[in-house]
Amino acid sequence: MKNVSPELLALLATRQFYRADLFRIALKNGTVLRYTSGDRSITADGDVYSDGGTTGPYFSKDGNGVLAHWKAGVEVDTLDMSVLVGSSTIDGVPFLDALRLGAFDLADVQVRRAYMPTYGDTSGGTV
Fold first, then answer.
1. Theoretical Cys-Cys bridge with 85: which of 9, 16, 95, 115, CB 3.0 to 4.6 Å?
2. Averaged confidence pLDDT in the chain
3. What global pTM score does this model have?
């Protein structure tokens, strides 16, 4: 079971809220990338999660949601997500080139979901 704040539980009970996934990707070189699946950037816990702006990348938009499978025992957890890279760069290297060069190897990926009464209001917390 996931821990959620009482404010978030109350919001979910209303069945009237906005939802966006928040992606935090810590690369092995120390670079931390933050993106959202939302239509506009979102600030949560003091960090800004980019919507990709005019250059990308764009995460899990147009109904291509994040699929995660958690396993017990010795099996490996999996996470599938859709990314449209646009003309974005990672440390000055085009996104796809950085991917091919191994920039994302051994990266730590965290996905949280923000539920908001108004878009951008993450005061109730995230899951």
1. 95
2. 87
3. 0.83
